[in-house]
Amino acid sequence: MVTFNNDIEVLNYALTLEHFENALYKALIGLNILTGTEASYLATFGQHEAAHVTALTQTIASLGGKPVAAQESYNLPKISDRTTLLTTIQTVEDVGASAYLGAAGFIQNKDLLEAAVNIHNIEAEHAAVWRFTLGMPSAPDTVAKGRTPDEVLAIVTPFLQASTASQADRNSTTGSNTTTTTTAPAPVPAPTVVAPAPSSFIPRRLGQG
């Protein structure tokens, strides 16, 4: 069972996920599969993920901690069509949103809690947009649900493991040095763990702050 001894460990957990999401968005943008509004969403949301990485890195350092570094490569799925791309990013964003909510109860500093919830809100908005593009309910639950760190890591660990794919195969698939495998993940079922609800959930609309 995953536990956190302090806020820095919680923030590094979040940063690990944000590094992965940032790498995924960069790889998907490089594929040039989406067009129009969907391509615009991908680019904008990718900028958000990069900003999350920067914010978390700076916060951890300001608290005297050592920010976890991004991996040199990730085990990303091989993607060649719109549906697979959208399904992949929707799954990852759903998990990302539920990860922040599931970790909220571990955060001791109220200022950090507010910042984490603000990022959670943006991740949830990303997930809602991608769900909509797939014809899925944008907001499937009346109450937001979280995943425990163990549940999150069970889902994302395959992405964090290095692939044995050749460099040539990686470059031809993603246009970058990011590793790939051959299948995309199936949509992840709705989580069942409800995180403790902090008293200071601060809503923020997309693009603010």
Structure, explained:
With 209 residues, this protein is mainly α. The protein is built from 6 helices and 2 strands. The chain has helices spanning 7-31, 36-62, 82-103, 110-133, 149-160, 167-174, and strands at residues 76-77, 180-181. The chain has a two-stranded parallel sheet.
> What is the arithmetic mean of pLDDT?
81
Name the overall outline: globular
Distance between the termini: 34 Å
Following the backbone from N to C, one meets helices and strands in this order, namely: HHEHHHHE
Radius of gyration: 16 Å
Helix content: 55-70%
The fraction of residues assigned to DSSP E strands is under 5%
Structural class: mainly alpha
Count the DSSP helices.
6
Could you describe the largest sheet, including whether it forms a barrel?
Answer: 2 strands, parallel
Order of strands, main sheet, comes to: 1-2
- Please tally the β strands and state the result: 2
